[in-house]
Specification:
Layout (H helix, E strand, L loop, with lengths): L1 E7 L3 E7 L5 E8 L4 H16 L4 E8 L2 E2 L6 E3 L6 E3 L1 H9 L3 E5 H12 L7 E7 L3 E7 L2 E2 L36 H14 L17 H9 L3 H25 L3 E5 L10 H11 L10 E4 L6 H15 L7
Parallel strand pairs: 1-4, 4-8, 9-12, 12-13
Antiparallel strand pairs: 1-2, 2-3, 5-6, 6-7, 9-10, 10-11
């Protein structure tokens, strides 16, 4: 059975035909329009371009936003023009195939737990580090969504009371210290605090510095950039300790764009996690691994979920 997984992001819509082994057979992409109706049309057109060439049984959408418990409605998507929209039903009517929605981090966790770095794990957590932090949890092979479909918001665990302001309205959230955005802010603070240090980052125009540039500078031995990476590693470890205290996972998969530089921080993060977790030295530790699927995890996981629900004969997908 072939299904299509769609990653619906703020800048692009990517759709891939995925087989039962997670292999991507073909991909199409389009720019993300501004309005909800235009977005529905863009998704439908992108999917049709694939469905016309392959016998597709269902479609799964990985969405960066809050999805209803039945995975039919997008309640809120901060970077998309969807507010309480029955996206699954609208697209199913256009495409004449079953459509399932899933939060993008949940979809990525499914890809990793079924076919990736957490394959076979009964309890697995995914921490997707990019502009912010996305989180997901798999318990006994099933995605844990909470009572209303929005759990777990790991990126907004408060690690530093009274710390950096977060767009969510709180201060000191995990993602404000461990993300691509946080890496830039930390490097900027370090440049100001250590004017005596020579750093290539100092030559970059204020406001133009990126996390990728910080990571590249750290690769070359830049002292400020390496301090910033060490800070990210510390906060990643502290956050993982909190996740382990609550969920006690077998495996934690680190995903997201920052993972391209995982060799610069993951070893140190593991050490911080091992030292900070409750009962340090007297309990098994989760294996902390980089995800297998990279930026394709959401598409693969959404396709896997769509296939599973069709095979299970879910009523709303019949």
């Amino acid at each position: 059975m072939l299904t299509i997984g769609v990653d619906v992001g703020g800048t692009s819509v990517r759709a891939s035909v995925v087989d039962a082994h997670g292999r991507i057979l073909d991909t199409r992409r389009a720019r993300t329009p501004r309005t909800g109706q235009e977005l529905n049309s863009a998704i439908a057109d992108t999917v049709r371009a694939l469905a016309d060439r392959y016998p597709v049984a269902a479609v799964g959408l990985a969405v960066a936003g809050f999805v209803s418990e039945d995975r039919r409605i997008v309640r809120f998507a901060p970077h998309l023009d969807w507010r309480h929209v029955p996206v699954a039903d609208e697209l199913a009517a256009r495409l004449d195939v079953p459509v399932l929605l899933e939060h993008d981090a949940n979809a990525a966790a499914v890809a990793e737990q079924r076919l990736g770095a957490a394959a076979g794990a009964k309890v697995a957590a995914l921490v997707a580090i990019g502009t912010g932090i996305g989180g997901a949890l798999v318990l006994n092979g099933e995605v844990f969504r909470g009572a209303y479909g929005v759990a777990p918001e790991l990126g907004h665990l408060r690690l530093v009371p009274g710390g950096r302001q977060c767009p969510c309205g709180k201060h000191g959230c995990w993602e404000r210290y461990c993300s691509g955005t946080a890496l830039v802010e930390t490097a900027t603070e370090l440049l100001a605090a250590h004017p005596e240090e020579t750093s290539v980052l100092a030559a970059i125009e204020p406001g133009k510095l990126t996390g990728v540039q910080v990571a590249q500078a750290a690769e070359t031995g830049d002292s400020i950039a390496q301090l910033a990476m060490a800070d990210l590693a510390k906060w990643l470890g502290e956050g993982l300790a909190l996740v382990a205290d609550v969920y006690d996972p077998e495996v934690v998969v680190i995903a997201g764009g920052v993972c391209e530089s995982a060799h610069l921080f993951l070893g140190s993060a593991r050490e911080h996690y091992a030292a900070a977790v409750t009962g340090a030295g007297h309990r098994p530790l989760a294996r902390v691994r980089v995800g297998r699927w990279g930026d394709k995890a959401g598409m693969v996981g959404a396709a896997v979920l769509a296939r599973e629900h069709v095979l299970a004969g879910e009523p709303h997908l019949a």
